[in-house]
Amino acid sequence: MVSGDTKGFRWGVERRLEFVEFRLFWEGGVNRSDIVDEFGVSVPQASKDLALYQEQAPANIVYDRSEKRYFASDAFRPKFIELDAAAYLDRLAPTTPTGGESRGGSLAALVADRLPIPQRRIASNSLRSLLAAVRGNRSLEILYQSMSQARPEPVWRRVSPHAFASDGLRWHARAYCHLDKKFKDFILSRCMDCRGLGESGSVPGSDELWNSLFQVVLIPNPALTSGQQEVVAQDFAMADGRAVVPVRRAMLYYFSKRLRLDLTSSNPRETPVVVSNRVEFDSALSEAMR
What we know:
Elements: H1 11-26, H2 32-39, H3 43-56, E1 61-64, E2 69-72, H4 85-92, H5 124-136, E3 138-144, E4 155-166, E5 171-177, E6 182-187, E7 191-199, H6 208-211, E8 213-220, H7 226-235, E9 243-248, H8 252-258, E10 273-275, H9 278-288
C-alpha cells in the first residue's frame, strides 16, 4: 500500500480496495459488477466496498449516473496501490500466450501480446534436490550436460549450490564445482538428474564474484543525435544523462549480453546505450569469466 493511514483493513477488504483503485486509474472506471466478477462477492458487498473506497479517498472517485459507473477524478492520487506501468503491461500481456483469451474484465477490449520465448524445461525433481541442498548448505551430484567440447556427454559432478539467478531467459544455479574447483553457473534445464546429498565443499560467503557488486555506468551512445540521446536517457530512466546499475560481478556477462553491450557495430541505433566506465567494466568482466 502507498499510504500508512490505510492500515487496519482485513486482507480481503484491502485487496478489493486495491482492485477498485487499480480499475479507476488503469481501466478508466469501475462498477459493482467488476468487483462481483473478480472476487465472487455479493452485490451488496460490492456496494459496501465502493462506499468504503469513497470514504477513504473521496477526492479520487466520481460517479456518473448516466453510465452507472465510477470514474477517476482529475485530482486522483493513489492511496492503495503503487502506479507501476511495467506491472500493468505484465497483466495486460501474460507470459504464456492465451490464444486470444483475455484475463477478463475490461482488459478484453485491449489487444496486447508478448513475444513467445520457448520455455526451458527444468526437471522438478532436480530443482527440488537443488533447493534442499541450498537450504541445508549441502552438496549433491548433478548429471549435467555441458556445451564444452571437452565434455560432449553428460557427466556426474558434485556441486555445492548456494543461490539461483535468472538472466532473463534462463535460470542458473550458482554453485561451487568440486570437479573444476571453482564457483560456476549451472543452467537448471541442463541438470538432468540429481543424487547423493553430502557435505558442502564451500561456504556461500567465499563466492566473491557473487557477493560483490560492480557499478555499471550507462550513458546514451554519443554517436546518436542529441534528440535520440535524450529519448534514450528517458527510456532508461537516467539522471543527468547516466544510469548507475549495481550488478553482481558473477552476472556481468549476462548483463552485457542482454543489453548488447558486447556488440561492435557502426550503427549506434543497435547499441543505444554504452558503458561509460568501460575499462573497469571490461576488467571486472574478464575476472568474472576466468
